[in-house]
Design brief:
This protein has about 550 residues and is mostly helical. Helices cover about 70% and strands about 0% of the residues. The longest helix has 16 residues.
Amino acid sequence: MKKPIVLLSTFLLAAPLMAQAPPAAKPAAPAQQPTAAEKSLQEAIKLVQAGNAAAAVEKLKALEKDPTLTPPLRSLVGALYLQVNRPQEALALLQPLADAEDAEPAVLYNAGRAALLTGNLDAGKIYLTRSVLKEPASPAARDLGFLTAREGRVVEAYSMLRPWALRNPEDTDARLMAASLALQLERPDAAAELIKGMPENEPALQLLRGKILVQKKDGRGAAALLRPLLAKHPQGMELEVRRSLAEAELLAGNAAEAVKLVEGHDAGYPALTLLLARAQRQAGNAAAALATLKPLADTLPTSASAMGDPRPAAGIALEYGTLLLEAGKPQEAGPFLERSTLYYPRNPEAWKALAKALDATGRKEDARKALAQAEEAAKPPVKPAMAATAPRADTAPSAPPEPPLSEGLQNAVRLMSQNQLEPALTAARQAVGISKDPRARLLEVRLLLQLKRPEEALKAAETAVQGDPNNPDYLYLRGVTEMGLQRWSAAEQDLRKALQLSPRHTGAMNDLAVLLMNLNKNDEARSLLQQVLRINPQDQMAAANLQRLESGQ
């Protein structure tokens, strides 16, 4: 693993170089002599660099008591405590500095690391997030990326780790994680770019390269790469190698070989069971494929609303329905194919298979509609601006750009723009399950509010907050929903906390101002609206509300 980064002052790092600078051509003013605290800190740095942690700690403890220790030097003492693996002492020094609104990105990053190392996950995430907001290139993006990846929030993790990995190619762990996330998002070219130039014979990299070729539909190339890896691989990697190699063999037309690779290894793994059934069908053994899939098909849910990632269930329903259709049982196939389109409506193949089943049972008009849906699903999704469809935090000019919307979320936005609110809600919920993109949850709640289902909207917002209690967008979302239910006190608390976590969140400022206006707290409301307009002079909502206040309406 890459050693954790600790940010130190550019003053102290540059000091030795400054001392070695050549004399000026003309006499210069005498350089200011370092203070006793600065000298002690330089000595502590040398002890840390020499690996003498015990002596460094003694020096740092003495420095803590120095009344001349300035805040910048105090932050360096905290950073050095992190270097010698003393996070508790580091956090004690860094926390007061990091809690200040004008805290430096390096202070926030080191405070975040110290908080995480002492087990305070919530505080650690807040400090790291603030560091990234102030400086997108901060290594806090790396730490946050790994944290969010472990939480299953693929899009958010990828948006932080990919830029970091490209800027820091020596960070192999970050490059590997970013490439893995790219494959989960079905971006093989991006994954290939991230691991370009890395060792050819590393097993983890061989597997990634094989998966990249599978996603690019190069079955023969992937199989040639993965076969040697199956014969010799590290412990714990076999199942994933088998799965990837079986997918490669299927693409290469070697269905019987794919069956051998997966059969007997799929128990408890629905994705592998589905892969086995596909291989059996392509090998000409439809009866075996039906028997393989039946236990999973019998337990498919009737609704997609409680589902996480709908793609596995949609794939099972499509494969089983197709098998029944090919067996001459269109009446039995229909319900499974309908479920596949319900779970994942962006798959044109599911709609085409459903059209065949409907046509075979005499439902010609329904078959025609299903084919029209297939054509619609095959179209490239529209890419509207998300800011016009869901509330979000305003970002500073230096903030990293938002990642592109997933295909499913783009579909949800398109349906919403066409006033197809119920289908848009289904698509948004599917996007929540697939990508964990917070914008999908924002859109889900907005749609529920438009559908006049505020209690359900509040439940969805509360679920989001429970999953990520310090996400300012989720807190803002719950606050807005509470405002709609006239729960003023709870709404005010959530909106204020959202602003505490994200001081430039113009949505929270706008809505908190409206709430305060309703409570006749006009002075604070005016201040909030003025602040919004300083951040974004084009904010029409803030301008209109400020005009109302000034005119006394």
